[in-house]
Design a protein that fits this description.
The longest helix is centred in the N-terminal third of the chain and has 24 residues. The protein is built from 19 helices and three strands.
Length: 454
Amino acid sequence: MMVTTTTIATQRQRPFSWITASALVLSFFLSFLGYDHHDAASQSFPKLLASSAFVPTQIYNNNAGRYRMLDARQFSSSSSISQSVLFMSTSDTKATSSSDQSNNSGGGKVKLSRSERKAKERAKKAADKKSKNQHFNRRRHNFSERSSLQDINPQPGEGPYDLHSNRVSKLTKNSTADDVLKAIKRAQNLHDAHDIRAVEQFLLEEVDETFAYGYRGSLLSRLAVAALHMSNNELARKAIDVRRLEHRASMMPMESAAIIRGLLRVGNTTDALTLLNDELSLPLQGTPLDSHENKEKLKHRALSLASIASRHFFEGEPCMAVKSCDMLSAIGPMIRESGLTIDELAMPWTRIIKGATQCESGRRSGSVIPCMPEVELPCNLVYAVLKAMTTFPSDNNDRTYEALSNALVRRTVFVTGAVGMSGLPMADRGEAVFIGRSNVGKSSLVNMVCVETF
């Protein structure tokens, strides 16, 4: 027979009712017939008690813990009793009595409701999380302990190829190209001189040209760009020289253009031009210009020359800028023949025009003085840019042509009016003609344009 022990702590409010007596008789009868305590009648027993004269405050089920706690009504009566209703067989009397005594004892563990247990669990998790965060956020500067353990456990960054990075703490022969690239990017972003030197020693002294399946040349170019970004010209020159000697066959025009821009950033125009003529030279005669290799070379050579022209215009050095524009004019027909489109080139004509306009303004005011007398400058520096633009495929960009017209037309002055060819002024400059039908606004346009502006 299944054993069910139920302990009820109650407070007396009114006399023992007939409903309670009926419930006790029914429960005892069902237990005698062998019904399980999970039966509907057995499960309804606490509910019957709750509606009777005995108002339960705590109800326990010693077998399965099914009845945890019922909501209790509080009374002002000072007298309280504790009754036990036992349904058991003769063989299980001792076991149920001992469990009943343990529940009624004053030192027993009181069971909590589900909501209370969940609240305690949430509070414990919050406390554990807070202590964990305090542990990891605490700054530890135990220099005495660190100095004593320095010989036993070297700290990151103290070995020949150790780095300050947590993601890539050390470079070895088993390191991948991605590990080296991450170390270079971190050193560049944080200007970490130690890490950039460690990467340089690793690439130049520890590994050979077969490292990372021949990807060492690209890593050297990326190292050179990072070193130039940190104004470390010596390290950049070493990386460029080793890349040129040992990885010439695998050099990519995009990498060469990036190094040229880095050299221009630090003002090393001489090395930039040397690298341009060496690694981004013009295609050999007889080779097809529409091949992928030649198209890449022409594209990045044009973009590199555009960077040289733009930077020197903005820095007030018109001679080198005009020289770069002349070199662009020379490769323009080749670019047309190669089939490169405007979208593939993405030439920064608008920026070059703005730089030429700014430099021309300084030239007229006397703040910009040409430093190369052998270079012939046009009357307006914007004409050098316009000459290069005419050789390239036209992009038909309104912003570009607006910047070009604003740069070339600096002022308009009304000179004279003539009714015949003999009254026209001398043709010593460019002329524009407005042609149209009668009463379409030709005179209004001329009057608007010829208002003297500065």
